[in-house]
Write a structure and sequence with these properties.
heterodimer; A: 308 residues; alpha/beta; 6-stranded mixed sheet; 43% helix; B: 754 residues; alpha+beta; 7-stranded mixed sheet; 41 strands
Amino acid sequence: MAETTGDGYAELLDPRALSRMGNLELIARQVVEGFVSGRHRSALKGFSVEFAEHREYTPGDEIRNIDWRVYAKSDRYYIKQYEQETNLRAYLLVDASGSMKFAGEASGGVSKFRYAQMLAACLASLLLRQQDAVGLVTFDTQVRRYIPPRSQALHLRAMLNELHATEPGAETSLAGVFHDIAERIRQRGLVIILSDCFDDPLALRNALHHFRHRRHEVILLHLMALEERTFPFRSWMRFRDLETAGRELLLDPQGVREAYLREVREFLAAVKRGCDELEIDYVSIDTSRSFDDTLLWYLGWREARARR
Amino acid sequence: MTALNPIMLWGLLAASIPILIHLLNRRRHRVIDWGAMQFLLASHTSRNRRVLLEEILVLAVRTAMLAALALGLARLFIQNPYFAGSGASAQAVAIVVDTSLSMSREVGGMTVLQRGVAAARQLIDTLSSADTVTVLFASATVEPVTDRPVYATDEGKAALQAQLAGIEPTAASVDMVRAIDTANLALADQVNPVKQIVVITDGQQYGWHLDEPRRWQFLAESLPTDETARPRITVLRLESPDESLVNLAVTSITLDRPIVGTDRPVRITATVTNTGQAASPARTVHVDVGERRLGSREVLALPPGASESLTLTHQFKTSGSVVITATLAGGDPIPLDDSQSLAVQVAQSLPVLLIDGAPSPEPLGSETAYLTAALAPTHRNRDAPVDYLVAARVVEVPDTDRIDLSKFRAVVLANVRYVPDALLTRLRDFVEQGGGLLITPGDQVDRADFNERLYAQGQGLSPVRLAAPVGDATARESFEILSDAAIDHPIMRLFAPPATMDLAKVHVYRWFPLEMSTRAANTRRVASLANGQPLAVEQRLGRGHVICTAVPWDIAWTNLPACKAYVVLTHELMYYLAEPLLPRWHLPPGQSLTVSFDADGAPPVGQVFDPDGTIHAVTGQRNGSRMTYPYRETSAPGVYRLVLSSPQGSTRYFFTVGLDPQESDLTSLDDEAIAHLTEPPLSLAFLETVDQAQRALSVESPGREIWRWLMLTVLLLAIVEVGLTRAIARNRHGDASAEVDLGGKQTRSPSGRG
């Protein structure tokens, strides 16, 4: 669907450019409105309302909403009353662990967390526009903040303020915190996880299984920087751990590159395999690329879901 | 194990470069805050040992490669039985051929030198094409026959053989220490590891300078300390003189005075020595002056080592340069020493300045009048006036300001009361430049001033301090006579017994006791009184001489002018004092000739014709109005001719370089001397035959250079290094393109869900 976006809009989706804007609400509005208006066919059309009950016509009601079948049977005017679809309760789970602070050169200094912030803001805005209820959970080793889902437009600001105020810090312990969140979210809904998933893949799988057990739908937006995937370093480097203070490694990157890439490859395969087994939608995201692929994917996913 | 090029061993330091680079890289690391630490930790733990091993391996290979390169360039030489004997290493050979006079001796129809050349040819033929060879001709100088050492290829050998064909004996002697030293220097730059010096000589003892152990010690110290790099020195003694050898040589030719004029006859003495091993027969000596034969004398039969001197008297008619030659008639085994020449410059005049301190209008009233009369006596035969050599000019002290002292050869301070400071300074410069000064103090002299300014605590012009005069000049009955003991000063040699003339009749009535400085090493007595006090004392100052007498040189305090000896003594004094300023026309071999004269305008063009007839250009050096022509190539004995040509005409000067008389001494090196030279540190090997010398040259190498192996090692290590780094790189970056591909949506298709 790339043909549906113009060059100017492509620029707008560049995380490096967006990051400079600072205000998440502005980013979310600009991206989502531009994104939606740029499409020829509205993705919102025809699926956002559901029949609820009949009500007697009163002047002022729209003529087109009169149920002519009921009128034929009863000779009375009844209005078909629709209820807005609010049964999609989406939870945005944003990883604020220390490793998310990594900002590679390829992504122009935009850290994974900043990318996750912006992406979460855009998704929240998009979901709200679609009349869905959106909640936000930020976490590292434990849940930092839980904002229950709401579908009011004003709710966006509260979430964005929270997102904005969040600073990534401590270690990651995804498995534990996911179990915790899974326990908290009672109502069945859509769980969108934005994380680098730097944890034990098996433990992660078990935690995700908890969500599935609760019959949540889960989308894993897996964020990784280009450097973390390619390990392009040549000269000797001192690697300082972002999560554990004082832990660092001085080494010749060329010597460990092969083994490193193998480790990463195995990890990703394990994560993806776990997602496949649990029927979790897995989206890998390169923080050096723009949002539109992710947003488009989401809209496609949403449309497909609506048709089910 | 030694290095033939040890300076390159510093290159071993380069072996540390890979390690330094490694450490530097570690030190200059970047710091990065890293998120994906779990993968890095896992990979680091698993890879760490292997990476370490790889790094150590690569570093070891690189270090070894540079070390092998440095050792190869240092030309490592292994002395090991496994390497030795695997064939002779390339040799650098220096063949020194003695071309001294003694090599011209004929034995069995061939000169020793011809045999030496034949031996040298045979030795050169022994060498292989990888060997280098330098041939040096050694006599007064040691000259290589080729600009640089040549490889003993057919072409190189032919070139050397051609050079050897033209070799002639010289009349000079050889200096073996210098010859071996020069050969060693010629070998020092050679790359071939085995170095050999072969000296081909006749075994004459003279030239080995065994009486100068310090020179030999210096030579031994200048040889490389390392056994391998040290040249092996072999001496091939061709022919020792047999006991029946008869050789007469003209060993010297001298004049009785250093300065010769046309006014007086001069005595020419030629000395003939039997330098052979047996008694010589009687032979005739001819003495020629220029082209004219002066006379001939018979030399009686001489036992070995004995000499006979033959004296002829001759008065030169004209001034100018002339050569006196003494030649032995008949032949003997060494013809080159049968003749000896002496160049003489017959002087036109000898200008002398007499400074009169007590002038008198009376005839013979002053000291200078006596001096003038003695130096240029009025000749009785007025029809044939004699052109006296000494041209005396008398001035009084105030007039000296206008006199250019450099025009004179000697100056006399005759009874001068006070020498002005300016004159004192000029006199000192004059003496230091080679002029002569005679001080004859008398009654006018201010003794205190003299001692203070002329003696100046032994630092002044005068060699002596004047004490208060003793004796009474008027009381002629009491006097001192001259001592006849130990008359060894050159001025006094004409009065040596028995020809003392009337020196014994000289009465000295009054005199200054001369107090010689005990510190002055350059001071000596010329003559003494019978009471032991000096009559005249000489001191060397710079290049010149100063003589101070105890009496004035007139009749006031002595009766000297009344004696016959007065005139002779006065002349001898002047000749002696003037001598340092005269150019040397007869030189020992190797000493340079310097001719100086005043010349305004364009400098004359100088050319020297050496004894071989070769012409050498000589460039004059101008210093003010004075031109100086130096000539240094005087190694070959014989007659040289310096011709100075200018538009006004040309002037010819002869000069001679004397034969070294000891070169005719054919005494062989004795066993003791040979034993001494055979010992370390020189360890010379003395051989008698060419075969032995050839075997010495073909001796097997004591070891082997291993630079080829080292270079091969460098090459192999370079290949290993390239292979190793490529393998490691492939290991590390082989899948560089295969980054962990998360690009695109690795997603489960939403529609795929049931």
